[in-house]
Design a protein that fits this description.
Structural class of chain A: mainly beta
Order of helices and strands of chain A: EEEEEEEEEEE
Mean pLDDT of chain B: 93
Radius of gyration of chain B: 13 Å
Largest sheet of chain B: 7 strands, mixed
Largest sheet of chain A: 6 strands, mixed
Helix content of chain A: under 10%
Low-confidence stretches of chain A: none
Number of strands of chain A: 11
Shape of chain A: globular
Number of strands of chain B: 11
Low-confidence stretches of chain B: none
Number of helices of chain A: 0
Oligomer: heterodimer
Radius of gyration of chain A: 13 Å
Mean pLDDT of chain A: 95
Order of helices and strands of chain B: EEEEEEEEEEE
Chain lengths: 110, 113
């Protein structure tokens, strides 16, 4: 069964304390892995798409990497405004099929 | 500005009443999607539409209905048959069914009293 698991469920960091979020997946026929940021009460905001193992993408303090079994979202020197829930999703198999993880709630303390 | 709008932001209904959630996009996207988000669960697909006048059931379609009469509009009706309708509902779109990145609307929080 296709599955996406994110860990940890919640993470508290001090401002400037770098860390990584994990997204492990089990799917057949991966068409893409996506990272989104979601603020409370709002819709997800697209961050990155990764297609193949070894691929990396960066945006400001965020860097996403992909292996054959998992993806990491590295946050370097986070700021309080990085506090949000980060969602991972994969697209596999049939055209419409997106599978979402439950997210990691990140809180960055000043 | 181009984007996806959902209305209303908050919706309260009595148990047993049908309610329709609006989703409009001016991005000229062909494909549109409805998701449900519950605490502690990933987004779950309710319905999707790849083109006007066509739509398919997702993983949790029971108790919901949709229409796609116009390219820019994809309303979702939550019927009285939906057992646990209280949730956060998200609409998304992509330029075409094969395009990967989804663009999401701001969401509608439905509370059934």
């Amino acid at each position: 069964e296709d599955q996406v698991t994110q860990s940890p469920e919640a993470l508290r960091l001090q401002e400037g304390e770098s860390s990584s979020l994990n997204c492990s997946y089990t799917v057949s026929g991966l068409r893409g892995l996506f990272w989104y940021r979601q603020d409370p009460g709002k819709g997800p905001e697209f961050l990155f798409t990764l297609y193949s193992a070894g691929e990396e993408k960066e945006k400001e303090r965020l860097k996403a990497t992909l292996t054959k079994k998992e993806s990491f979202l590295h946050i370097t020197a986070p700021k309080p405004e990085d506090s949000a829930t980060y969602l991972c999703a994969v697209r596999a198999g049939r055209v419409y099929k997106y599978i979402f993880g439950t997210g990691t709630r990140l809180k960055v303390l000043a | 500005d181009g984007g996806i709008t959902q209305s209303p932001k908050y919706l309260f209904r009595k148990e047993g009443q049908n309610v329709t959630l609006s989703c409009e996009q001016n991005l000229n996207h062909d494909a549109m999607y409805w998701y449900r988000q519950d605490p502690g669960q990933g987004l779950r697909l309710i319905y999707y539409s790849q083109i006007v006048n066509d739509f398919q059931k997702g993983d949790i379609a029971e108790g919901y209905s949709v229409s796609r009469e116009k390219k820019e509009s994809f309303p979702l009706t939550v019927t009285s048959a939906q057992k646990n309708p209280t949730a956060f509902y998200l609409c998304a779109s992509t330029p075409s069914p094969s395009y990967n990145e989804q663009f999401f609307g701001p969401g509608t929080r439905l509370t059934v009293l």
